[in-house]
From TrEMBL, chain A:
It comes from Desulforamulus putei DSM 12395. This is NADH-quinone oxidoreductase subunit A. NDH-1 is composed of 14 different subunits. Subunits NuoA, H, J, K, L, M, N constitute the membrane sector of the complex. Its EC number is 7.1.1.-. PANTHER family: NADH-UBIQUINONE OXIDOREDUCTASE CHAIN 3.
TrEMBL record, chain B:
It catalyses: a quinone + NADH + 5 H(+)(in) = a quinol + NAD(+) + 4 H(+)(out). NDH-1 shuttles electrons from NADH, via FMN and iron-sulfur (Fe-S) centers, to quinones in the respiratory chain. The immediate electron acceptor for the enzyme in this species is believed to be ubiquinone. Couples the redox reaction to proton translocation (for every two electrons transferred, four hydrogen ions are translocated across the cytoplasmic membrane), and thus conserves the redox energy in a proton gradient. This subunit may bind ubiquinone. The gene is nuoH. It comes from Desulforamulus putei DSM 12395. This is NADH-quinone oxidoreductase subunit H. GO terms for cellular component: plasma membrane.
């Protein structure tokens, strides 16, 4: 049996477990009718305005950096695995690669991308 | 004792084979049994970890903690679960109902799926995958999307802010977490969990990678959204973050997944840095799986200790600390480990 069948089994059971728990609760929980029960809970006060607004994510520059580094890691892991076979040349090449990324991090830092505004 | 579970598995396998089942069916049933064992382990340990959490925090604050239900309050969390199941699941009128319900249904999937590669003892791993570490990193971060989705679907300002904070936390702590593990991979040259543990037979990687362990620990606390990085559900700021609108079983699912994540991060720390199931000081008469669980619970106790030692950080401090301290440190760690390993190889030849 392929190991991915096992992984799929784990994932399916994880979802079924969540759905089953909610379903069990749905079958046995009490139901009461109340006009105010279904209101949005915000400290008990009446809700003001909508929540689905254009949210300004202060950290989108961080998120861009995150994407760049996340892609970098895809190259870093195979290098780490075959470290012993690559020898000195592999070490130097990877250090140049990381150095370029560190240069990018330094530039972003200098330009204030890592500041919370 | 040492081979208790391994013998149980092989006994079951020969029983099924003698019943005349084809190999594929036997494998499938055996995988199902392993899955059941892991699920029961997660549920029981989540149940008692809540109790442990409350007791540990109580004693750290000179209180007694739960002591009413059962002897020493041991049945307190069982009673809590019974209460949560029998509570009504309230779906707010304004919420996006489908996504709102999808959150608690999906939230338990990532931690359970990652437990498939957790080596609980010698030869005790459900799926011995050759890219185990990669799989852990890929699947474990799915939780972020699910929590963010439920925060958005709740249509509540506090939930929305909480959901956005989950993403902020992931963006700043995923990178140090991933980079801190690279040092271990350089030393072992494999991504297979069991192989990594076997490589630590003589010396645990916490001694070769102290900085990597420290970074992993900090990032792991942030990954599980626990104090001092519990911005996501900072009670005094945003009520309960993305879980504000959830009641009854929906809330219980998020709670369960949180504790499953705590166990998961501790399991990974034990595997990568604390020698896994290797016994320290040659105490091999105690079975390997007991050693593994002991180390896991020591790590969890450490997490609980953190919670009552440090105050919550602010969100801008969190991101600055992640990117300006932890990322450069972990890159330096990779440099030092690479050069050290290369020098060690050259000198040995």
């Amino acid at each position: 049996m392929s190991e991915w069948v096992g992984v799929a089994l784990f994932m399916v059971v994880g979802i079924v477990f969540g759905a089953g728990g909610l379903l069990t609760s749905f079958l046995i929980h009490p139901r009461s009718k109340n006009r105010f029960k279904l209101e949005t809970y915000e400290c008990g006060l009446p809700t003001q305005g909508a929540s689905w607004v254009q949210f300004k994510t202060q950290y989108f520059t961080y998120a861009l950096m995150f994407v760049i580094f996340d892609v970098e890691v895809i190259y870093l892991y195979p290098w780490a695995v075959s470290f012993e076979n690559l020898g000195f040349a592999g070490l130097i090449k990877m250090f140049i690669f990381i150095f370029i990324l560190v240069l990018g991090l330094w530039y972003a830092w200098k330009e204030g991308a890592l500041e919370w505004r | 004792m040492e081979n208790l579970f391994v013998n149980m598995a092989s006994g079951m396998r020969s029983l099924l084979a003698s019943a005349g089942l084809p190999d594929t069916a036997t494998d499938f049933i055996l995988m199902f049994l392993k899955l059941g064992a892991i699920l029961v382990y997660i549920l029981i340990s989540a149940l008692w970890l809540v109790y442990m959490e409350r007791k540990v925090s109580a004693y750290m604050q000179c209180r007694i903690g739960p002591n009413r239900v059962g002897p020493l309050g041991l049945l307190q969390t069982t009673a809590d679960i019974g209460k949560l199941i029998s509570k009504e699941i309230i779906i707010p009128r304004c919420a996006d109902k489908k996504l709102f319900l999808l959150g608690p249904i999906l939230i338990f999937m990532p931690p359970l799926a990652v437990f498939a590669v957790a080596p609980f003892g010698k030869d005790m791993v459900a799926i011995d995958m050759n890219i185990g570490v990669y799989y852990f990193l890929a699947v474990a971060s799915l939780s972020t999307v699910i929590v963010w989705m439920s925060g958005w679907a709740s249509n509540n300002k506090y939930s929305l802010i909480g959901g956005m904070r989950v993403v902020a936390q992931m963006v700043s702590y995923e990178m140090p977490l991933i980079l801190s593990i690279v040092g271990v991979i350089i030393l072992t040259g494999t991504l297979n969990m069991s192989e990594i543990i076997r490589a630590q037979e003589n010396v645990w990687f916490i001694f070769l990678q102290p900085l990597g362990f420290l970074i992993y620990l900090i990032a792991g606390v942030a990954e599980t959204n626990r104090a001092p990085f519990d911005l996501v559900e900072g009670e005094s700021e945003i009520i309960c973050g993305p879980f504000t609108e959830y009641s009854g079983m929906g809330f219980a699912m998020f709670f369960l997944a949180e504790y499953a994540n705590v166990v998961l991060v501790s399991v990974m720390a034990t595997t990568l840095f604390l020698g896994g199931w290797h016994a320290p000081f040659g105490l091999t008469f105690i079975p390997s799986w007991i050693w593994f669980l002991l180390k896991v619970y020591v790590m969890i106790f450490l997490f609980m200790w953190f919670r009552w030692t440090y105050p919550r950080v602010r969100v801008d401090q969190l991101m600055e600390f992640g990117w300006k301290v932890l990322v450069p440190l972990s890159i330096a760690n990779i440099f030092v480990t690479g050069i050290g390993k290369y020098l060690y190889q050259t000198i040995r030849w």
